[in-house]
Amino acid sequence: MAIDPRTPVIVGVGQRTSRRDELPGPEPLDAWLASARMAAEDAGLSEAALRGVDFLATGKCMNWLYDDATGRLAERLGASPRGRMTGAPSGTSAHVMLHEGARAIRSGQAEMALICGGESLATAKAYAKAGQALPWSHRAPPSVANDMDKKRLPVEEALGLTQGIGAIYGFAMRDIARRAHLGIAPEEYRRQIGEIASGMTKVAAANPDAWFQTYHDPDFLVGRRPDNRMVAYPYTKHLVSIMDVDVAGAVLLMSEAAADRLGVARSKRVYPWSACAAEDPVYTAVRPDLWKSHAMRAASAAVLEASGVTMDDVAHVDLYSCFPSAVNFGRDALGIQDRGGDRITVTGGLPYGGGPGSSYVITSLVQMTRRLRSDPGSIGLVSGLGKQMSHHAYGLYSTEPQPEGSRIVDEAAVQRAVDKTPQLPVVDNYAGPATVATYTVMYDRNDEVTHGAAICDLPDGSRTYARISEPEILREAESTELVGRKVDIVAGATFSELRM
Predict the structure, then answer these.
(1) Distance CA 271, CA 398 (A)
(2) Distance (Å, rounded) from C-alpha 461 to C-alpha 182?
(3) Tens-place pLDDT, residues 390-448
(4) Are strands 463-468 and 246-255 parallel, antiparallel or unpaired?
(5) Residue 145 above 80 pLDDT?
(6) Is 11 helix (H, G, I), strand (E, B) or coil?
C-alpha cells in the first residue's frame, strides 16, 4: 500500500535521566536539548538536521518558568520553526503537542516536528539542600506565575482536599468509591493495588531510563513502615507518583516524504494512528458515578473505533499512573482488568519510572516507540491524564501505517456525548441525614492522622462534603466499608462534620 507522503511518522526518540548519584544535573532547557539530540541520533540524523524543525513544542516546566521556553530551545537548536507551542500544565499535554505537530505535518504546514519536555526537580532539591540558588538561565519575570488552573470548590479547600501532589486525596476517594462499587473488602483491595504496582516495578527494573530500577513485591509497596508512611488512605508513599526526578524526553516526527528524503530507516518509523482527548467535570462531587470516568470510556472507545481495532489487537499499553485510581479507572475504561501491572506500562509508571510533571507522557511515547520497534506490526496505546482526573487523552501507535478506512476522531462530538452526563448539585454547610458516597483519611509527614473527608449523598439527590474528626470513625474508616453507611452531618462555620 502506497503511503501518503504527508503521513506523519515518529522517526526518533530520546530520554535523558540523570542518575541520583550524579546530581546536580542540568537545568531543564539543557536536558531538553540533550534529549532532542538523542532523538536525532536515534533517527540516524546529524544534530544539524534539527535546524529543519518547523514545528516545535515544549512541555510546561513546573520548577523553572522560562521567559520563552520554546523560543529558547529553538535558539539552542538553530531552528526557526513557524509553528510553536507550549503545552498546558496537564498530563495530557504531550498527546496534544504531538498530535498538533502531526496535524501540522498532515496539512503541509510543517515537515518536521519536535516535542520536548521534562523536569529537573531532583536537581532543584539538591541545590536547595546545599543552600545554593539555582544557576539556571532565562527565568521569566517575577510577575509571571505558573498557572495550574486550580479550580476548586471552597469546601474542598477548607477540608484540605487540594493539598499534596496532584491533590492525592481526590484520587484516593475515587479508588474507595470503585472498591465499594465492586464490593471488595478494604484489605483485599489494598492487596490488589499492591499486586498491580508490583508488576509495574518489574517493568521499571528493566527500563534503563527509569528513576527507580528496582523490583518490589506487593507487601513492600502497601506495607506501612517508617519509610512507607500512609499518605492518604488507601495509599502509602510507594504507591504514588514521584515528581522529584531529573527526567526529560523528546519525540521527533516528520512527514513520510521527509523521512524518505533524509534516509530514515524503515525500522525506525512508528506511525501515530488515532487520538482523542475528552474531559470530565472539574469538580469531583458533581459526577454521578464516582467509581468511573465517562470521558475515559468515551475517548478510549473513540480511538479504537476510529482505527477499526479492539483492545484484543493492542499488544502494548502505557496507562497514566500518577495514583492507583488512575490505573484502575483506565483498566476499567479499556476492559483490561485481566492485564497485570507489567502489561499496562512500558516505563514502570510515574511512581517508579518517574513522573516529570506534565511531561511524563513524552517519556511513555519514547518507551512505546522503542517497544513497537522491537515488535514490528504490533499496536501500542498510550494514555494521559490531568487535573483532578478530569482531563483524558489516548493515542494509538504502530510501526505500520494506519489501516485503510481509518478516520480522524471527531473530538467535539465525543465531548458533547460526555457532557450529556448529568451533574449533581453540591450543597455547602449541610446539616441532616446523609449516606456516605466515598471518603478518605489524611495523614501528615509523621504518619499521623490529621482528619478525614467524605462526599455524601443527600436525600434530595444532591451532595455535600463533610469532615471526619472523631478518632473512632477514622479507625473504622480503614478497617470496614463506610460507603453506603447512613450518617448524620452537623453544620460548622466553614465545613460540615460527619457523625455516626
Answers:
(1) 5
(2) 22
(3) 999 999 999 999 998 889 999 999 999 999 999 999 998 899 999 999 999 999 889 99
(4) unpaired
(5) no
(6) strand
Tell me how far apart the alpha carbons of residues 269 and 132 are, in angstroms, rounded to a whole number. Answer: 44
Asked whether residue 164 carries a pLDDT value surpassing 60, the answer given is: no
Cα–Cα distance for residue pair 381/461, rounded to 1 Å: 38
- On whether the CB atoms of residues 420 and 281 are closer than 8 A, the answer is no
Contact 396, 379 (CB under 8 A): yes
In whole angstroms, what is the distance from residue 344 CA to residue 342 CA? 6
- Cell triple for 200: 509495574
How far from 445 is each of 164, 165, 485, CA to CA, in Å?
11, 13, 29
Which helix or strand (DSSP H or E) is residue 304 part of? helix 294-307
| Residue 378: all three cell numbers together | 504490533
Helix (H) or strand (E) segment spanning residue 380: strand 379-386
User: Are the C-beta atoms of 274 and 306 separated by less than 8 Å?
Assistant: yes
Cell readout for 291 is 467509581
Q: Which amino acid, 499?
A: R
Residue 317's H or E segment, with its range, is: strand 316-318
Q: What is the pairing mode between strands 112-120 and 379-386?
A: unpaired
Task: Report the Cα 320 to chain-centroid distance in Å.
Answer: 4
Strand partners, 9: 254
State the cell numbers at 320: 497514566
Instruction: Tell me the C-alpha distance between 467 and 133, whole Å.
Output: 40
Residue 269 CA: distances (Å) to CA of 13, 78, 266, 276, 406? 11, 25, 5, 22, 19
Taking a C-beta distance cutoff of 8 angstroms, is the pair 484, 180 a contact? yes
pLDDT at 27 over 60: yes
The C-alpha torsion from 443 through 444 and 448 to 453, rounded to 10°, is -30
Compute the distance between CA of residue 438 and CA of residue 174 in angstroms, rounded to an integer: 7
Q: In the beta sheet, which residues pair with residue 55? A: 83, 113
- What per-residue confidence (pLDDT) applies to 150? 58
The rounded distance, in Å, linking the Cα atoms of 189 and 177 is 12
Cell of 104: 501540522
Pair 427, 462: CB distance under 8 Å? yes
Q: Kindly state the DSSP code that residue 66 receives in the 8-state scheme.
A: B
Q: Which of 155-169, 183-197, 257-271 has the lowest mean pLDDT?
A: 155-169
Residue with cell 450529556: 420
Do the Cβ atoms of 467 and 498 come closer than 8 Å? yes
Closest residue by Cα to residue 155 from 465, 454, 457, 435:
465
Q: What is the DSSP string of 212-281?
A: ------HHHHHS-BTTB-EEETTEEGGGS-----EEEEEEEEEEHHHHHHTT--GGG-BEEEEEEEEE--
Residue 168 cell numbers, joined: 492525592
